[in-house]
């Protein structure tokens, strides 16, 4: 398997690294260093940051702290680093294990101190490598680099990479191209597990129970697409059971609300009962007090009247006494008779006047009585009209919350009860009519809004259905994309294998280009010929090169044939005594042929011969020097020659010097005319002497001509000067030509063989090229993907169309809502049709009341003048009656005085003697004194009685007022209580008995709190029970005017409340009524659907989910067995051996089969299951699903769904439990269960072993869900701290066996263990916390540790 391995990681301008690349050995690296050297920081900044691009602070610290931030790493520690702004890069390179294929991923960052971190993400493809083919920086000047900006990076990666703005897209790419998890959630779960594993010393809170939880989480869950059949079935079932579930939710929510509402209602009734009982008691007490005071006041009134009569009588008698005394003092005997007559006459006159006045008084009283009755009748009539008017106006007050005419109503209602004009009344009616028309407009818009809502709901459902279909297409696309990726990798491997055997090679760059184009097939549809173009180019190039290499060979064969013929002819010529000639070019030959036509000339070598005294060595050197200098073949002539690529030797003889004449002589066979010239020329060339005007030849084979020096070729033999030389040269040439001919023949044969090989290679290349693996499966998967894409595109267009339509309707809906809002912003009414229908009806009622009220107003206004006249007549008559009473009382007093005077006069007339008059006077004076004393006593008594009466009247008035108020309150509180009890109780005894049972202390805050609970709960159920048109109506217990309510004080707080109303089947219902109705429906539907559920579980669960569960459980059991074998095979210094089991949990109920029995049944083919087995499995899963539904109902998590609950109920991982056992070597007991308590008794090394190995297995399990090419990466902070070397070696061995790529750090660990096949070790040096980190690199080859020089990457 040619999987990815982590090959290199790098940091550019990050922390205290300027440009550092860390190489891994087969995916393994260890960072060493002291505290503060940056080993943990380096590892945590790279892993798992580069996997998912998440740079959150809590990911950068093994302890989960948020103190370390990526910005600080990028800029360096404040106070240590002088950077306040910077750009940096992190990257990771992966490589195929068995081929030179590379992929680089990374993150670019920019930060300013105190600012925010900006990130971008990149991938480098096309086999380009950072630091080799591409750099992430630009060199500003020598030894100074600047990291690329995002824009420059984009430009640099054109055609061979990509840049992402969003972390999500980057993470998706990394998962798809490197890790290969089917969904991103699995990738996230892996990263979470890697972070847990990375923790230094694995946190002291780790214990077996925690490890079991991690192991459980590492088991693959049931995937969404695996549950798709069940999901669709559940959706189908939900479709059938939707009403039942809705009813369950509605009943549950309505029951909660009803309970809350009943608590409030009970509290309201209790407090009203208590208040009424209190007022009834006060009323009774005040009534008794009023009667007592009234009785006492009546007694005082009677005493006061008696005292007033006594006082009046005493005053009359006293006045008569005073007059009598005066008369006695003025007594004149004879005048008494005359005086008596006068008094009698005066008395008669007074009596006549009294009689006349009494008759007049009777007539006036009768007239006043009649007039008062008439006035009272008129007032009663007016009062009836006025009461009716007030009632009508008061009745209108209930509509003011809808009409929002409170101010107008208040002003004009007061006017109507006083004075209102016709214009004002018409204006009032017009305003109400405007309101009514406004309500009608709103109602029409509400109906339009309801239509739009229905239309939008239907479209939303259609959009949701299409969205589900799109999701299914996306799922199918993901599956086929994974298939495509796998087929591409198989294609790559096939091509690699083919290329290793192919007869022509493919250059590394072309291989990279080929694989890059194959990778491009993951995202775009390239034609196969374009993908394979690098192979075709390599084939054509190799074929062309091979053909090109054959051309010179064939040409060479032709040349050889020609050379053979020429050589054979040359041999024949040499054999026929041919004179040797120096090699001449064509120009020289042509020139000499032209000269020979008209001019006599000879070559120098033809004109001379060696002297016999000259030895062969000197001959070779001299001729060699002449040949090298060109003199040997130079022309000698008497005339000046026309030269073309040739030379002529001119004579300039020098005598008395060493010249060629001492070694050469003139050839006597040449033309005589030339012989003297030749002799002079021999004298013109010096030997072993330098003359600046003449050429010099040296016996060592060199020459010098002016400032030109040269020398002969080594091993030169004289061949041209002299007959012997020429003959020897001829024989040598014949031999050489014969050898050359033999060589040509041999070369000809070899070339023929080479051509034969190349022709066979040509055929093999052609065959190999056509045998190159094709991408049929890749393009088949692409075809399926394209079909899915087309289907998805069609669905997407349909989705877009429907969504656009829905958005258009939604926009219309929003517009309608805005219009409604603008139209109703001042209305304050709920935007419901029924509300505005009520509002229109209330407007009609209001207008009708207003018309009736105004009619009464007009009648009252017509009655007012008569009432005024009648009242004035009554007032006048009353004044007259009062005057008559006064006159009558005065007359009676005058009559009494006059009668006394008459009586006294008679007594005086009877007196005969003076003594009798004196006695009479004395008695009168005594009686006068007594009566004056009596008057004073009576006045004091009257004053006391008057004060007492005033006090008691005030007290009675106060009690009466209190009684009136209390009675007024008691009446309404009683009526309110009767209404709350939903009955009118005639007998107060019964009402009192009920009130005593229900009464509670008055506590309005408590009642308000309960009411707020009702409102809150209603706000929630308003959404849950929207189909029942829930409304909170403004309810009034007793209809009262605002003035009356104000008199009742806190009564209004209890009289006004919100009353819930629901609508079902066209009828209004209370909460209790609706709850009873829905509960009945729920029971009926549950019974009807139970049978369908049973059939569903029998067919669906067994056929779909059962198979998946069986597969998952078998895989898990196999994995646990592998993990168990791995644990048992591990050796450690303490002799501790571990084992692990995955045990079934016992059944939880009678319907629960238990894991063992369930697995046994699931492992059987469904066709051989008996009906009893099917029934058992069905009941088991029904129990699970019903439990899930019950948990969902009782769950406080509003985000839970039924599908999630069922998926949790069917989570096979909860049907088993992990159990680890341990045993020490040389201890006789059987393996013991590793409990938390036993674990705590382990040594530090034993604890570490017991923690690491299971977690390694857990990570390995998580990687099993990844793609087959995935690098199994783990990271360990402070790796294996506190463990002895033997156990560390075993843990490294486990890492090797599990095929992990790992990056570890440690203070002391070198990792040079025999169980480690290869490891790159970096020791990080940062003395005294300087702002520079120096890595020292070592390589462990499995046997020996090597120090390696760090390559510069700057």
How helix-rich are the residues, as a percent range? 55-70%
Largest sheet report = 6 strands, antiparallel
Radius of gyration: 65 Å
Strand content: 5-15%
Unreliable stretches (pLDDT < 50, length at least 5) are none
Assembly category: single chain
User: N- to C-terminal separation?
Assistant: 35 Å
CATH class of the domain at 4-199 and 1277-1348: Alpha Beta
Question: Mean pLDDT across all residues, rounded?
Answer: 81
Contiguous helical run count: 34
Tell me what the CATH architecture of the domain at 4-199 and 1277-1348 is: 3-Layer(aba) Sandwich
CATH names the topology of the domain at 4-199 and 1277-1348 as N-terminal domain of mukB
Structural class: alpha+beta
Overall strand count: 28
Secondary structure elements and pairings:
Blueprint: E1 4-14, E2 17-23, E3 28-32, H1 39-46, H2 49-52, H3 70-75, E4 85-96, E5 102-112, E6 118-124, E7 137-141, E8 144-147, H4 150-156, E9 161-164, H5 167-179, H6 184-198, H7 208-218, H8 228-329, H9 335-397, H10 400-403, H11 406-416, H12 422-501, H13 508-520, H14 528-531, H15 533-575, H16 586-596, E10 601-603, H17 604-607, E11 608-610, H18 616-629, E12 635-637, E13 664-666, H19 675-683, E14 686-687, E15 696-697, E16 702-705, E17 708-711, H20 723-770, H21 776-824, H22 833-910, H23 914-980, H24 988-998, H25 1004-1024, E18 1031-1036, H26 1042-1047, H27 1051-1055, E19 1056-1064, E20 1067-1069, H28 1071-1129, E21 1136-1144, H29 1155-1162, H30 1171-1194, H31 1202-1209, E22 1216-1224, E23 1232-1233, H32 1236-1240, H33 1244-1264, E24 1272-1276, H34 1285-1297, E25 1300-1306, E26 1319-1325, E27 1334-1340, E28 1345-1348
Helix pairs in contact: 6-33, 7-33, 8-22, 8-23, 8-24, 8-25, 8-28, 9-22, 12-21, 12-22, 13-15, 15-20, 28-30, 28-33, 30-31, 33-34
Coiled coil: 230-267, 311-388, 429-483, 734-761, 907-944
Protein name: TIGR02680 family protein
Biased composition (Polar residues): 574-585
